[in-house]
């Protein structure tokens, strides 16, 4: 049997920890009665509601790795009717959500899933998920500035630094950098601080996942082993 907090998390509403809080605060009902025990073992016939909304347990959990092209918005909808990431998943009946975001003109890897618990984990700063980017600038980045990136640069929201830098990308004025911070626009902000204009930004690696065999605009399902690895990071 599945425990109540796990079932709520698997429905995509929130993480398991947040599900536990919702249950303990009396916001979950089972068969019409408030239940405050997170580890209650759910029966197949139980009707579960979170804040009055019925949980549908039949939805299968899906996990995809998507290589986002330029000019694609990483949201489920756009008021200006621009192309969103959901355009590429029209054939999928389940409602998917991106893990994190990429700027409209940033290309590269992003995970799409309906697993709320995994989304929470991969998005939360404390788990320090590493990402590798190819950063193309308007001119070569000096050795001194590369050292500054590794040592740390003061931005408006604190000291930020990259973990690794490599110039072995075989692309002009392009560095490969690995960073753990998931703060908004952090890569572009670092290079802007050093007075470099970022002409292209491509996320080539997310945790242990790479772009190998995945052209722009394409996606593939994650294997069970890959999902398990992400859960155990």
How does this structure look, described?
Strand 15 and strand 16 form a beta hairpin. The protein contains 6 helices and 17 strands. 21% of the residues lie in helices and 28% in strands. The relative contact order is 0.16. Strands 7, 8, 9, 10, 13, 14, 15, 16 and 17 form a 9-stranded mixed beta sheet that branches. Strands 3-2-5-6 form a 4-stranded antiparallel beta sheet. A two-stranded antiparallel sheet has the order 1-4. The longest helix is centred in the first third of the chain and has 9 residues. The two termini are 26 Å apart. It has 3 domains: 53 residues, Roll (Structural Genomics Hypothetical 15.5 Kd Protein In mrcA-pckA Intergenic Region, Chain A); 85 residues, 2-Layer Sandwich (Alpha-Beta Plaits), CATH 3.30.70.580; 77 residues, 2-Layer Sandwich (Alpha-Beta Plaits), CATH 3.30.70. The radius of gyration is 20 Å and the shape is elongated. The mean pLDDT is 92. The protein has 233 residues and is an alpha+beta fold.
